Amino acid sequence: MTVSVLMVCLGNICRSPMAEAAFRHHAGRLGLDVNVDSAGTGGWHAGDPPDHRAQEVARRLGGVEIGDLRARQVRTEDFVEFDYLLAMDSDNLRALYALRPSGATGRIAMLDSPALGADAVAVDDPYYGDSADFERCWRHVDRAAYAFAMRLLEGGI
Ligand code: 4NP
Predict the structure, then answer these.
(1) Averaged pLDDT for residues 60-88
(2) Nearest residue CA, atom 3 of ligand 1?
(3) In the structure, which protein residues have their CB atom closer than 6 angstroms to any atom of ligand 1?
(4) Does the pTM of the predicted model rise above 0.85?
């Protein structure tokens, strides 16, 4: 069975494309059958590739190329097409709940939340930061994406 996961941040050019790539990488290595995408709750960057700093850190620390990804805004269909919609922070979590249509089937949670709800930790926005912030961000989404993939594998969620 394919599990569909949508990573969600504000602009879809920094955190969520990195989370998308990290999760695809770990799920593939673990042999999980997944469909992964990412989107922004805001639409200002729709059509843009990931921020060049995100591309650089994904390549350098993760060994993955994300330059072909293009930003898009969250759409109503996402709430039925994806099994999990994983927000990077609580603002985006709230935005997802606000956009959620009736009949939505996808589960909404923060990416870094061990019990999908409890003790959630925000992935800080690196957009106005420097390269060290992007490095921290990559390590954070990479670790959280791996943990989420492991929980899927173990059937814990
Ligand atoms: P992201 O970062 O949500 O991780 O993609 C941001 C990118 C762009 C903006 C804010 C956050 N912006 O205001 O344009």
Answers:
(1) 98
(2) 10
(3) 9-15, 44-45, 125, 127
(4) yes
